[in-house]
Amino acid sequence: GAVVSQHPSWVICKSGTSVKIECRSLDFQATTMFWYRQFPKQSLMLMATSNEGSKATYEQGVEKDKFLINHASLTLSTLTVTSAHPEDSSFYICSARVDGTEQFFGPGTRLTVL
Amino acid sequence: QKEVEQNSGPLSVPEGAIASLNCTYSDRVSQSFFWYRQYSGKSPELIMSIYSNGDKEDGRFTAQLNKASQYVSLLIRDSQPSDSATYLCAVRRDGQNFVFGPGTRLSVLP
């Protein structure tokens, strides 16, 4: 299957700081990438759909000014959590869709905000 | 009614048995169906995709799709303790995003 990487795999930051998470498609070009959040023992929650060269589409209830998404190229999308707070601590996972069909996930980034 | 429903489990089966995981969906025009496995603390991993009615086999895994009943299942033969994970069903309609079910937690007992 297609390979999606994320960096960093985990990050600890102080409350009020911003954190950037990168998502890369390594062996294919992804016009569409997705960002999910998952709290412990809960299901995946889609945060936003990231389209190369255009603004991201955010799901209802997700603050676009807090979770900044940039999809600058066909292989890279970034999620920046601005002014992070402890309630933002979660597992953030990106995915990319291949040829409009299958969707492959990155390994995830565990964010802990102190 | 939720778009994609799964029994949350846990589903416990003894090692070597067949594990049967079920998923129902509400959008009748859904066209693509996927099963993902997620180990605790890890991201989901695609294990099967199915697009037409009937069975699709891949090793110990068999996906079954019945569009008339809006039902998709995953059978795991000869279950191993390493199969213990949460299994996510995903459904997609052309031009739309994936819709994931809440997942079924499977526990294979040695």
As residue ranges, the low-confidence spans of chain A are: none
- Which sequence of SSEs, written as H and E, runs from N to C of chain B? EEEEEEEEEEE
Give the distance, in angstroms, between the N- and C-terminal Cα atoms of chain A.
36 Å
Q: Kindly name the structural category of chain A.
A: mainly beta
User: Largest chain interface and its two residue counts?
Assistant: A-B, 16 and 18 residues
Q: Which parts of chain B are unreliable, with pLDDT below 50 for 5 consecutive residues or more?
A: none
Tally of DSSP helical segments of chain B: 0
Envelope shape of chain B = globular
What does this structure look like?
The complex is a heterodimer of chains A (114) and B (110). Chain A is mainly beta and 114 residues long. Chain A has strands spanning 4-7, 10-13, 19-25, 32-38, 45-51, 57-58, 67-73, 76-81, 90-97, 103-105, 109-113. In chain A, the strands form 2 sheets. In chain A, strands 2, 4, 5, 6, 9, 10 and 11 form a 7-stranded mixed beta sheet that branches. The model of chain A has no long low-confidence stretch (mean pLDDT 92). Helices cover 0% and strands 54% of the residues of chain B. Chain B has strands spanning 4-5, 11-14, 19-25, 32-38, 45-50, 54-58, 61-66, 71-76, 85-92, 99-100, 104-109. In chain B, a hairpin with a 2-residue loop joins strand 6 (54-58) and strand 7. The termini of chain B are far apart. Classes of the chains: A mainly beta (114), B mainly beta (110). The interface between A and B is medium-sized, with 16 and 18 residues.
